[in-house]
Design goal:
Length: 186
């Protein structure tokens, strides 16, 4: 049983890595399941055992973003929300810098719509679970609004930074965004 599980993990990882490699070379819309399988060295049937389509593989790839954010938060033992906000924002910008070539490839067309929704969903889950503190008098609607505002600032700030090809230092941009996110969540 353990051998099968390790094989499944290796296959998924190979498929995810293959998609990332292909995205560094070609637009998302041009990548096919066959291309992914060939690059990963697996058959189409193996692909479809794990994913329903390339969009499914693409969406699940954003779990790396969640892992990076949660790993960064796990390294901090403090309880201060402003510190956690700064950590999440810095980790988001670091993740984007590490995968900048892929991010630039996926911001347009169908991939842009899929990636935007998935990034926003991951960020909303992290913000709500790790950064949001609700006041006793604030209703659920206001908490949802605060999360939406914080996510919009994170995505907007990151998009601005990526579009300008890093004309502002990553840490400076992340700090500026974190300040605004703090205000959204206050």
């Amino acid at each position: 049983m353990e051998q099968i599980d390790r094989r499944k993990v290796r296959t998924r990882q190979a498929l995810q890595n293959a998609l990332i490699e292909l995205l560094r070379e070609t637009p998302y819309e041009s990548v096919t399941v066959s291309d992914i399988c060939q690059r990963a060295g697996v058959g189409r049937s193996a692909f479809y055992q794990h994913y329903t389509c390339k969009d499914d593989l693409f969406r699940l790839g954003f779990e790396r973003l969640r892992e990076d954010l949660e790993r960064a938060l796990a390294q901090d033992s403090g309880d201060q929300r402003s510190v956690r906000i700064a950590i999440v924002t810095a980790a988001l910008f670091e993740h984007a810098e590490r995968h900048g070539d892929v991010y630039r490839r996926i911001v347009e067309g169908h991939a842009g719509a899929v990636s935007s929704r998935r990034i926003r969903a991951v960020l909303a889950e992290v913000v709500e679970a790790k950064l949001l503190t609700t006041d006793a008098f604030a209703g659920r609607g206001l908490a949802e609004l605060r999360v939406e505002l914080a996510v919009s600032v994170l995505v907007g700030g990151l998009g601005w930074w990526l579009e300008r090809r890093w004309s502002v230092a990553r840490d400076d941009a992340a700090r500026s965004v974190a300040i605004v996110v703090q205000h959204c969540l206050d």
